[in-house]
Design goal:
The protein is mainly alpha-helical and 47 residues long. Helix content is 77%, strand content 0%. The protein contains 2 helices and no strands. It has helices at residues 7-30, 35-46.
């Protein structure tokens, strides 16, 4: 049984990929925010 055959590793990989896709979408949308929207988003990321 290889490392990547582990069910736990596969689940973690799915979660990481989902998080990556969400962050990439958010990053793409960030440029569309107005000044206050950018401030709000930045403060939420810091939490």
């Amino acid at each position: 049984m290889g490392f990547f055959d582990s069910e736990i590793v596969q689940e973690e990989a799915k979660h990481l990929f989902h998080d990556y896709q969400s962050l990439m979408q958010l990053g793409g949308d960030y440029g569309k925010f107005d000044r206050e929207g950018k401030k709000s988003s930045s403060s939420r990321w810091k939490q």
